[in-house]
Amino acid sequence: MPIRSMTAFAQFKGQVRPDASFTLALKSVNHRFLDLHLRMPPQSDALEMKLRRVLKERVARGHVELTLALDGAGAAALAVNRELVGGYVQAFRQAAREFGISGEPDLNAVLRMPGALSSGEAELDAETGARVLAGLAEAIAQLDRMRVEEGHGIERELRERMARLRSATAEVGKLCDAVARAYLEKIQSRMKELIGSHADPDRILQEAALLAERSDIQEEIVRLNTHIQHFLGVLDEGGEAGKKLDFLLQEMNREANTLLSKTSGVSGEGLRITELGLAMKSEIEKSREQVQNVE
């Protein structure tokens, strides 16, 4: 299965009866987990639960918004709540008689009262529910096609960045000997200073060991190459790869930081390694921006 982006949009329009139809829209953006938001007509709780269950089965991760709108004569019809409106009118006229006030109730004000009008749009029968569920399956298929298409573009960019990262890592590896020589010269210079000042032999050994340890960046290079290879393997596997890829990029960033720390203050080839290390961090950071949108 190819990797999929979490950014996509799909819309499905369905017909229930000659005078009634519906529009179902899905919008997906990136999110750490699966985050569902459904905008439904009133009194459609049972259908909403079914829609949620289908989405959880078909979508692994992302902020997903579903909007369902009903259209047609049946959906748009309004009915007057006769009991509520009649009670208000009767109470108004009775109060007018008791207090000797002339006038009739304002129908516009009455109809603005909560519950005075009800919409047929709220009534979802079994046939409408079944058509909407079938429409959701088609909308999810459209959403998946767009997510896969977007995923192809992300994958291409990630592979290109990994190629540049691997090239930079290889160049750093070729400079290891030069860096070691630079550190050796630094050690020798430091030893002369310490010996000239009659320093304690243990202090001299500590300084030499510290500088020798800082000069070894081979371990970071090996780990970077391992992480890059693993990253490409996850891309080959596809599927729900976003969290794995993000973790590997965090590890790569850690190794790049350590490499830069170990080579700071080294002249000559050390400056070139600093340039390469900063370029590596840039590739890693831009890759992380893309990976945040991978399911």
Poorly predicted parts: none
> What is the CA-CA span between the terminal residues?
12 Å
CATH topology of the domain at 149-291: Butyryl-CoA Dehydrogenase, subunit A, domain 3
Could you give the order of strands across the largest sheet? 1-2-4-3
How many β strands by DSSP? 6
Please give the radius of gyration in angstroms. Answer: 34 Å
Q: In a few lines, what is going on in this structure?
A:
By secondary structure, this protein is an alpha+beta fold. The chain is built from 10 helices and 6 strands; from the N terminus they run E-E-E-H-E-H-E-H-H-E-H-H-H-H-H-H.
3D architecture notes:
The protein has 295 residues and is α+β, with helices and mostly antiparallel strands. α1 (45-58) links the parallel β3 (34-39) and β4 (62-72). Strands 1-2-4-3 form a four-stranded mixed sheet. Among the domains are: 82-115, no CATH class; 149-291, Butyryl-CoA Dehydrogenase, subunit A, domain 3, CATH 1.20.140. The protein has helices at residues 45-58, 73-76, 82-99, 107-111, 126-174, 176-196, 201-215, 218-237, 242-263, 269-291, and strands spanning 8-17, 20-29, 34-39, 62-72, 78-80, 117-119.
